[in-house]
Amino acid sequence: MLIHWNLIKQRPHFLAEHLNKYFNVEVVYNSSFRKGVLVKNTIAAGLRRTVIFLLPLTRYKLIRKINSILLKLQYRIRLRLEDVVWITSPVQYELLKDILPSNIMVVYDCMDDRLEFPEFKADTDLLEKMYRSEKDLLERTNIVIASSKYLRKKLIARYKTTKDIKVVNNAISYPNKDSGGGYVPYKIEKAFKNTKLKKIVYIGCLAEWLDVDLLLESLSLFPDIIYILIGPVGPPLPKNERLISTGPVEHKYIFEIMRRADALVMPFKINELVLSVNPVKLYEYIYSCKPAIVIKYDETQEFRDYVYLYSNKEEYFYYIEKLVSGKLGIKKNCSENRNYAMRNTWEERALIIKELILGNR
User: Does residue 2 belong to any structural domain of this protein?
Assistant: First the structure.
């Protein structure tokens, strides 16, 4: 995994836990010194985890060189013990390509369009390097999975590949006995304390694609709303007493957080990176049986029967106005929402992937 196990729970976490029901899965990830962004994620019974040791102070070139050697040494040992290696990014392949055993099965789970990430687009040399790595990865891999239809189209167009790319969308890990039990951490409890305001919740990374300008303008127009943003913080947010960022929380609390919300939002800026995203949060939003206001693009069109889609700020403000006036309910009844979510679980996705792996042995 490119991320620490205790960072906000994402696709690799869920798939590892559910694939471990059919295979002996070992999750390997780098150590992290950014303790402030880590939470205590649950771990499925029997799932093995290995932390790769790295040195801190990676801003120094010498440290980065030493870490590169440490990574390869530790991964080489792990790879000798495995039959299948699961890769989610050309960044990983660049590290592993020289040490991959020739007989190991490679699965490329393309979960994001990594070449559209800001750090790559800002550096033409790095972008070219990642392009070559992804091209080589597609040639080496035995199974290619894309998390969205748009991402599949991008891979085919970009590399003219003839590989059979399977689309396996994101999904939901629904609440169980460990899901908070009605409790939320104090920092979340504090954010919900104002009972007079309509509480609008966003759950996810607070990155460059979040349309902060839209949120600020809506706060100016509607004095009766407050935004509560749950997730790791990227660029600093502007100061506003009704724009509250709590930082990341354990996944087990999100269903209780959504239960306390008046509405849920996904206010993204549309760019090539976002267009490739099949949003995990929408499956969770739908399950929550709360009205959800979501930016419209091809991937979110799949959810149009369950969420309110907007194309511009006027449409977004229209739905906020309906929320404030008490006229924004859920589009389907709660039973229909839950049935939709339960047809789109990580367990179902893992079954598809299980058959792909067994069919390629």
Answer: no
